[in-house]
Amino acid sequence: MARILTGIQSTNQPHLGNILGAIEPMVQLSNQLEHEAFAFIADLHSLTTVKEGGDRRHRVHQVAATWVACGFDYSKNRLYCQSDLPEVTELTWYLNCFAPFPMLANAHSFKDKSSRLADVNAGLFTYPVLMAADILGYDAHLVPVGKDQRQHLEMTRDLAGAFNHRYGDVFVVPEAFVQKDVEVIPGIDGQKMSKSYGNFIDVFLPEKSLRKVVMAIATDSTPLEDPKDAENCIVYQLFSRIVSADRALEMKQNLEAGGYGYGHAKQALFDALMERFAEARERYRHLMEHPEELEAILAEGASRARPILQQVLVRVRAKLGFGSLPA
Ligand code: TYM
Predict the structure, then answer these.
(1) Is-catalytic flag, 192?
(2) What is the 3-class SS of 186-209, one letter each residue?
(3) What superfamily in CATH does domain 2-184+290-320 come from?
(4) Where are the domains of the chain?
(5) Which atom of ligand 1 is closest in space to residue 140's alpha carbon?
(6) Mutation test residue for ligand 1: of 18, 29, 195, the one with most atoms within 8 Å of CB
(7) What's the CATH class of domain 207-276?
(8) Could you tell me if 239 and 265 are in contact, meaning their C-beta atoms sit under 8 angstroms apart?
């Protein structure tokens, strides 16, 4: 049975890009019998940017509620919070001691910020190593992620390969699973949808606020009656990823024919979002009103994930010579 695993940072409410790029592919894979799925909330990673402690667990709840609301079967699989299994930081240290400086200096997560080195903390610099520990610590085979995480997965594979080369087969070498048709979901300004760009669509917003966000999607100034370039229209790009191929084609033809304005397209996108996420919105609202249910799910997930992480640590410590000698 292949083990699939993925994580979402708890820096903010997960957005449409996270849902289409990682959560839904994971839910689909996890429903296949040959897979055992581990989903987690990367709250330790969030500390590289979010320093406020006050609502850290609330953010964890938002991500956990999103997983459950989007259909992740937590009773068959495992849903846990990264920091509830602090053993992962021990594994991170071991891996840190094998992570070459040039590899880390080449990571996008660091490079994006490297023009202002004073803002780069050591956690941000070694971010890919904690991510490698997340994956290698649970013997994961397949990691469903968006395209932006591909490089981190390559680093995980490199670290595992180098370690195995030196010490024998200690780690499973994982593979990334990136769904072609969803690769990068654009935000309302056309850049990659991202928590840090503030251009994201939170499908769990109250109806009025969600409508406002959709209406704010950037469009060009082509007059209503003129034909429009559907492929370059952000509204169409988002719409086509959440509806059937037939409905997407209908909007494309409408845009290209003229007489169909961006306002019409935005209204259609808003309706489609409300329709597609109707059940998820309901479940999400319920869970956020009952954090005790989320805590119970996370506690159970952590207790079922822990033995696997501990076994991996036993293997690693033995190879590295840590631990007391038998009497
Ligand atoms: P994060 O929290 O930035 O994003 C979570 C997942 O959502 C995907 N994603 C997108 N997919 C398509 N279009 C977008 N606009 C978009 N934005 C985000 C990401 O590719 C990701 O799959 N480092 C990770 C969290 C993490 C992790 C791990 C993932 C920590 N440890 C181990 C996998 C395995 C991150 O920051 O994801």
Answers:
(1) yes
(2) ECCCCCECCCCCCCCCCCCCCHHH
(3) HUPs (3.40.50.620)
(4) 2-184+290-320, 207-276
(5) 34
(6) 18
(7) mainly alpha
(8) yes
